[in-house]
Design brief:
The protein is built from 19 helices and 2 strands. By secondary structure, it is an all-alpha fold. The chain has a domain of 90 residues. Strands 1-2 form a two-stranded antiparallel ribbon. A hairpin with a 2-residue loop joins strand 1 and strand 2. Helix 15 packs antiparallel against helix 16. The longest helix is centred in the N-terminal third of the chain and has 52 residues.
Length: 402
């Protein structure tokens, strides 16, 4: 539409111009250093137009190579983009080998082949071709050294997915050296340390993960508690146990998992009396099963007083299996075999477990009931075995307390 208007306008201007110029073509004289050039106005206009056209033509010829190069580049980029898209589609549809080939071919003609190489590495990884995966990643780094972090993160993710934990750890440590507080790298490093159960290293990196990482609060709390529980287990003495508990964040130091580790550490370091008193206080304030079970294990200074306290709790929690098991163990310490048996049989009726059957079997063996003891042990083992167990041979009566 616009072109037609331009043509009409040009014809009108030409018609009017021709009318006036033909009626009186005018006269032009150019005098330059004794040279004179005479011509009519139409001729001058023609030469000026010819000069403008010549200048335009020369300029186009000069920039033609660049324009051709840009056009060729756009064509190659378009083709590379098509191959990239087709490669991604093939990978998404599960055709990993074909997708990898298309991605690799597109990389050679792409202006920024980094993405192609990274995706080709993922395609090779999905085929289980680790060597080829690493080769694509190497090419990605060589093509774009400035994207080293992106390449290393991709490599670490793929290594973790392949359960190549040692290689992933080396990659993440290298990345940590390159970019000290990279949030996602710290997150992966924390997950890897947790999976490897390297609690010392996890404890060292936790402060930076809290500050720079991208870990959900619940996961971060889980890691924190596990590190502190391991520190409690390794504490050399009671004072170290108490100091370690004090270092736990306030919102976590009352968690049953942490408290159980704390009380077990007190017991291990010879502070059973303190453990028994603190346990009784904690249970009285907040009833929690793991701590109640532990109360039956801790050996306070006065076993009868400890049993009396547990039986006092039974008036409010008569069918609590954790408390019944704790009371049964305290009865065993006080050599009250009949009462212990009654409590254990109540637990078995409410919530049987391998732990309960183990204690029950020891008690029956102590009482000389070898057949019943063997059956109790078989029942307990059967709860952790997928196949039925044969009868267990008679056991000699325990000489020690169950």
């Amino acid at each position: 539409m616009k072109l037609g208007l331009y043509i009409i306008a040009a014809l009108l201007v030409s018609a009017f111009g021709a009318h006036f110029l033909l009626a009186n073509p005018g006269y032009v004289l150019i005098d330059f250093r004794d040279y004179q050039v005479e011509m009519s106005v139409p001729v001058l206009v023609f030469f000026v137009a010819l000069l403008v056209f010549a200048i335009w033509l020369v300029r186009r010829l000069l920039i033609a190579p660049r324009l051709l190069g840009e056009a060729a580049g756009r064509y190659r980029a378009g083709r590379a983009g098509q191959k990239l898209t087709r490669g991604m589609i093939e990978v998404a549809e599960g055709n990993f080998a074909r997708g990898e080939k298309l991605l690799a071919r597109a990389a050679h003609s792409s202006d920024s082949p980094l993405f192609n190489y990274l995706q080709a590495a993922r395609a090779a990884h999905l085929q289980g071709k680790d060597e080829r995966r690493d080769e694509w990643l190497k090419l990605a780094y060589e093509e774009t050294p400035g994207a080293a972090n992106a390449v290393l993160l991709t490599q670490a993710e793929l290594q973790l997915d392949s359960k190549q934990y040692e290689q992933a750890l080396a990659t993440l440590r290298r990345l940590d050296e390159n970019s000290r507080n990279h949030g996602y790298a710290l997150t992966l490093l924390g997950r890897l340390y947790f999976k490897l159960e390297d609690w010392q290293q996890l404890g060292q990196v936790l402060p930076r993960i809290r500050k720079f990482g991208r870990v959900e609060t619940a996961t971060l709390d889980e890691w924190t508690m596990r590190v502190h529980c391991e520190e409690l287990e390794a504490a050399p003495d009671g004072d170290a146990v108490i100091r370690e508990l004090a270092s736990v964040p306030k919102r976590l130091n009352s968690d049953p998992t942490v408290l159980e580790a704390y009380y077990r550490a007190l017991i291990r370091t010879g502070m059973s009396d303190k453990a028994e008193k603190d346990l009784a206080t904690a249970i009285g304030k907040n009833w929690r099963g793991p701590l109640v079970r532990l109360y039956g294990i801790v050996e306070g200074a006065d076993p009868s007083k400890q049993l009396k306290k547990a039986e006092g709790w039974l008036t409010k929690h008569p069918e609590d299996p954790d408390l019944l098991l704790a009371a049964a163990r305290l009865c065993l310490r006080n050599k009250l075999w009949g009462k212990a048996r009654s409590y254990l049989e109540s637990v078995i009726g409410i919530r049987p477990s391998p732990e309960v059957y183990q204690v029950y079997g020891k008690l029956l063996n102590q009482l000389g009931e070898a057949d019943a003891a063997a059956e109790a042990f078989r029942e307990g083992l059967g709860m952790v075995s997928d196949e039925p167990l044969p009868a267990i041979p008679h056991l000699a009566a325990d000489s020690d307390q169950a």
